Amino acid sequence: MEAFTRINGIVAPMDRVNIDTDQIIPAVYLKSIERTGFQDALFSSWRYLEDGSPNPDFVLNVPAYKSATVLVAGRNFGCGSSREHAPWALHDYGFRCVIAPSFADIFYSNCLQNGLLPVRLPEETVQRILDKAAQDPGYRISVDLEAQRVWDEAEEIAVEFEMDPARRHALLNGLDDIGQTLQHEDKIGAYEAAHGL
Hints:
Layout: E1 6-14, H1 21-24, H2 44-47, E2 70-73, H3 85-93, E3 97-100, H4 105-112, E4 117-120, H5 123-135, E5 140-144, E6 149-152, E7 158-160, H6 165-172, H7 177-182, H8 185-194
Parallel strand pairs: 1-2, 2-3, 3-4
Antiparallel strand pairs: 1-5, 5-6, 6-7
C-alpha cells in the first residue's frame, strides 16, 4: 500500500451531501477485481453526458481542477454499498485525500486500506474550503498526517484533525492489514515451528 505522509495539492470542491459509492463508481464497472484502471469510471454518471462526451458543468471536467489531489465534499461521503472499488477509483484518478464532515464507516476503513486519507473536519471548516476552492480554482491546501493538520497557503484555514493512532501508523508506513501482520513474520514462524505447523 502507498504510504501517506504529507501533500500539498489543488482542491476539487464537490459541494454535495450523501455522495454514495454508486455515484463514486457505478456498479457497471465492478467486473474487475484489480485495484487499477478505474480512473475513467470515477463519477462517470456525472462526468459524462449521455453521448459519452465530458459534462462541462462537472467539477472534474473544469481544467483548473483536473490535477486535483484533494477532494472536499459534504457530509456522509461514501455511503451506500461497501464496494472497495470506490477508494480504488478515487486513488486511480489521483486523489490522495478526501475531506468531509463525516464518512460512511466502511468507506472510511476502505480508504485507509488503500492509501487514501479520509479527513473529518467540522462542517463549517469544510464549507469554507469548498467556498474558497469554488471561488479560486487552483486553490491549494496542505494535509500532513504526521502532524494531523490541514492548512492553506495564507493560513486562513489551519486546523488539526483526529485519527486513530493505529490507523495513522499504518497509513504513514504504507501498511494494510496483511502488511501489519507480516511485521510479526518472525514470531509467526517461530510459533508455527514450535507447534509443528
